[in-house]
Structures are given as structure tokens and as C-alpha cells.
Design brief:
The chain is α+β, with helices and mostly antiparallel strands. About 20% of the residues lie in helices and about 20% in strands. Strands 2-1-4-3 form a four-stranded antiparallel beta sheet, with no helix packed on it. The longest helix is centred in the last third of the chain and has 17 residues, at about 90-105. It is elongated, with a radius of gyration of 33 Å.
């Protein structure tokens, strides 16, 4: 057995051919890029065709004769102030501010000096 396989790389090459293999039915979809490129992708007939495909230039190409997809809602960026207001009311913050200012005025809070 080892003599018949001499010189062969096991696992590296498949010796099967595609003869008598019937491929799944396909449909070809065309996507148009805003930069003028055309992307052609084959899909199975049973596949759900995406309305947007990424072009080689990085832009989003739209399906030809397709509908424009709905824009995703833009998520509001939460700042530190927004998160603070979720935890405390303005009245609570004013009370805390007055307490800290009283401590600073009384000289009980060490002030860091820059070097």
C-alpha cells in the first residue's frame, strides 16, 4: 500500500472530480455601487437575496431593480452628564455641589497642587 502512495501528499489534494455532479439551481444578482462599479453574485434560488452588498471599494452596492433598504435608526450617544442624570436628580446634584463647596471653603478638602 505504501508503495502505491509514494510521492503523493495525502490530504493536500483531492482526487475527486466534478463529473456527474449536479449543482444547485442558481440565480445571478447584480449590485450597483455608487462609485460606478457593478458587483455580480451568484445565489441559490432558495436563498434570501440581500438588498445591499459590500463593493470591492468598500461602498454599499444596492441590488439592481431592488428597493432602497430602510435606514437604521441612529442611536443617541450618551454622555457622562446623561448617565449622571439617570442616577440623580438636579436637586440632589445641587445639594451635593453645595456640600462640596462648603468643604472647600472651610479648607477641609486637600487641594492637589500640580508640580
Amino acid at each position: 500500500m505504501s508503495e502505491a502512495l509514494r510521492g503523493s501528499r495525502l490530504g493536500a489534494t483531492s482526487y475527486e472530480t466534478d463529473e456527474h455532479v449536479e449543482l444547485a439551481p442558481r440565480q445571478v444578482c447584480h449590485y450597483d455601487c455608487p462609485n460606478g462599479h457593478t458587483v455580480t453574485m451568484p445565489f441559490s434560488v432558495e436563498a434570501d437575496i440581500p438588498s445591499v452588498w459590500e463593493c470591492r471599494c468598500g461602498a454599499e452596492a444596492l441590488l439592481r431593480d431592488g428597493t432602497q433598504p430602510d435606514a437604521k435608526p441612529v442611536k443617541h450617544v450618551r454622555t457622562h452628564w446623561d448617565m449622571l442624570l439617570e442616577r440623580r436628580s438636579m436637586e440632589d446634584l445641587e445639594v451635593l455641589l453645595e456640600e462640596r463647596l462648603d468643604l472647600v471653603r472651610a479648607g477641609r478638602t486637600p487641594v492637589k497642587k500640580s508640580a
